[in-house]
Every structure is written in structure tokens, then in C-alpha cells.
Design a protein that fits this description.
The complex is a heterodimer of chains A (172) and B (174). Chain A is mostly helical and 172 residues long. Chain A has helices at residues 2-16, 24-34, 40-51, 57-100, 104-132, 136-152, 156-170. Chain A has two domains: 2-100, no CATH class; 104-170, no CATH class. In chain B, helix 1 (3-16) packs across helix 4 and helix 3 (42-54) packs across helix 4 (59-95). The longest helix of chain B has 37 residues, at 59-95. The chains are: A mainly alpha (172), B mainly alpha (174).
Chain lengths: 172, 174
């Protein structure tokens, strides 16, 4: 029974949380008022954890809540519930896209959408910058890294590992 | 290496190093899927993000599902999705009981401060790389500027930005 409930509640979040990222937070907060799966304080901690662990916050929260309620199988149930609706929807859209992507209609649509996507990517960078670029030292660090990324073109993961090591060494 | 295992392993790797939300994943998608595997293109990544932004669910998962489907149909879509989600599931289960200790660890905090700064530099480089493919005309330049102003200063939702750009596309170019 608890598995059904976990699946159902996270399925609803997966279906109605439009836009990703922190939009799942109000839905998760709503869960704290109806169930004792996790407290609102744990939710706040989890938002902080999401900044210091990989992966989407919605997935992290579903896993955490499911694990607290019913162990590893609970974690898997809640996470499956969360991603299930979007996987079905995207598969349907992807199948349609196969037919339409060569049409002038689709190409015209994407002609004006792509510059908006660049703005979205830059906006994500700005949001992250508000959190991370908290002083002249951080900004200089970022500029030096950009130079290294742009001119050496190594794998992003290498730069991230290096950034983590330097973060510890320089106490950023 | 079978294609499904390859899909799973690739998205597992991407999921493990995605810090800072769905858009922060783009440098990894570019390096792994456009550069190394040639499974997709910069243009397609932009298209998947615009659709993933306007459909329910987590954007990083939506994009993984899209690319998985392109490579190997429904089975591929599910495989890529499981791959991208698996690292977070494993890490959170491992950390669930020690989350407070983990959060208060100074080394973790410093490491992630460093990683976040690198992610910003990676995002800047992605934008420079994609710029020519997305902004090649006055109309596209205007859409970029107006979208950015709306997002940063007016707090317009990303969904509204994509839909507005779509309407302009349909109105101006027939």
C-alpha cells in the first residue's frame, strides 16, 4: 500500500511540475503537510544537498523520501513514479518529432526558439553565478578556468575535478 | 560494447557530474554526445531543451529520454533515463542517514564551491560555441536580447519565453 501511495504522489509531481529544477519544491512542501514522510526542515536541507550533490533536486527528494518511508525499494518506487509521466510524454513527442523535424514548419519554429534557448542557458549561468561568484577571487578563478576550457578543450569532467581540488586547496 | 550498455554508461557518467541543474548538464552532453559519440548535434540539443522545458517533468531527464529515443527507440529512451537518474539515487541512498554530517563537512563545501565556479565557465563556453548556430540574423538577435531581459529582470518563466519565441517564429516566417 505504501508503495502505491509513494508512486502515486510522486507521479503527480512528475506530471504537474512544469519547467524542472526548483518548481518541484512547492509540490514537495505540500507533501510535508499531508504525510509524515519528511519534514519541511528536511526539505530545506535537501535543497542545500542538491547544490552539493549531482542530479536533479526532484529526483534527490523522491529518493530521499522513498528511502525514509520504505528503504531502498521505497526510494526506487518514488523515483520511478516521478520520472514515469515525463518518460511517456517525451517518447510520444520524440516519435512525432521523427516525422516533423524535416518540415519547414518545424525548422521555422526552431529558428526563433533556438536564440531563446541560448538566453535560457545564459540565465541558468547567471543564477548559478549569484550563488558561486561571491567575490573577486571567485570571478578571477572563473575567468582563468574559462580560458583553459576554451583553449585546451579537454573533457568538462577534468575541469570539474580540478575545480573541486582547487576549491579545497584554496578554501573557496 | 552493445549500444544499450553504451547509452546507459554514457548517461550514468553525465548524471554523476551534473551539478547545478538541467542546463548545467549541457557541457557534458556536448562533450560526450556531440563530440565523442556523434549521437546528436548542438542544434538538436537546443531543440530538446526547448521542448523539455515546456513539457512536464525534470528537464535533465526529459533531454536524456529524447536522446535515448533517437538512438534506440523506446528501449533506448528508458535506458538513458535510468542511466541519468541512477547516480543521484545511489548517492542519496548512501547519504540518507548521514546527510547532516555530509552537509557540515568543510571539504565538501569547498570542493563544491570550486566545482560551481567551473560549471559557470563551462556554461559560458557552451554559449560561445552555440551562438553562431542559434543567433545568425537580426530577428534572432532581438529574440535573444528580449528573452534574456525578460528572464533576468522581469522574472518571466522559461516556459513563457519559449512559447513566445515559438509564436514569433510562426507569425514572422511562413
Amino acid at each position: 500500500m505504501i508503495y502505491g501511495l509513494l508512486f502515486f504522489e510522486f507521479f503527480k509531481i512528475g506530471l504537474f511540475a512544469l519547467g524542472g529544477g526548483l518548481v518541484t519544491v512547492p509540490f514537495l512542501f505540500d507533501l510535508t503537510t499531508r504525510y509524515s514522510w519528511f519534514t519541511s526542515e528536511q526539505l530545506v536541507n535537501m535543497i542545500a544537498v542538491a547544490e552539493s550533490s549531482p542530479g536533479p533536486i526532484g529526483v534527490n527528494m523522491a529518493t530521499y523520501a522513498g528511502f525514509k518511508v520504505a528503504g531502498i525499494s521505497g526510494a526506487l518506487t518514488a523515483t520511478t513514479g516521478l520520472v514515469f509521466p515525463s518518460v511517456v510524454i517525451i517518447i510520444i513527442i520524440a516519435a512525432l518529432l521523427d516525422k516533423f523535424k524535416q518540415t519547414t514548419f518545424f525548422q521555422n519554429l526552431m529558428f526563433t526558439i533556438r536564440p531563446a534557448v541560448i538566453a535560457l542557458i545564459l540565465n541558468a549561468g547567471v543564477e548559478l553565478g549569484k550563488l558561486a561568484l561571491n567575490g573577486i577571487e571567485a570571478i578571477a578563478f572563473c575567468a582563468i578556468f574559462w580560458g583553459a576550457i576554451h583553449f585546451f578543450k579537454l573533457h568538462p569532467i577534468l575541469y570539474m575535478i580540478l575545480g573541486g581540488i582547487l576549491g579545497i586547496a584554496l578554501k573557496l | 560494447m552493445s549500444i544499450l550498455w553504451n547509452l546507459f554508461a554514457t548517461f550514468f557518467k553525465i548524471g554523476m557530474f551534473t551539478f547545478g541543474g538541467g542546463y548545467a548538464m549541457i557541457p557534458l552532453l556536448q562533450a560526450e554526445l556531440v563530440g565523442k559519440k556523434k549521437w546528436t548535434t548542438d542544434e538538436e540539443i537546443m531543440d530538446y531543451y526547448s521542448i523539455g522545458q515546456c513539457t512536464p517533468g525534470i528537464i535533465a531527464v526529459n533531454v536524456a529520454t529524447f536522446i535515448g529515443y533517437k538512438i534506440k527507440g523506446i528501449v533506448g529512451a528508458v535506458t538513458a533515463t535510468v542511466g541519468i537518474v541512477a547516480p543521484s539515487v545511489i548517492i542519496i541512498i548512501a547519504l540518507a542517514n548521514i546527510i547532516n554530517i555530509y552537509m557540515e563537512n568543510q571539504y565538501v563545501a569547498h570542493a563544491f564551491a570550486g566545482i560551481r565556479i567551473v560549471v559557470i565557465a563551462l556554461i559560458v563556453d557552451v554559449i560561445i560555441g552555440m551562438w553562431k548556430k542559434a543567433v545568425g540574423s537580426v530577428l534572432q538577435g532581438c529574440i535573444f536580447v528580449v528573452s534574456l531581459l525578460g528572464l533576468i529582470w522581469l522574472g518571466v518563466s522559461p516556459v513563457a519565453v519559449v512559447l513566445t519565441a515559438a509564436v514569433i517564429g510562426l507569425a514572422v516566417r511562413r
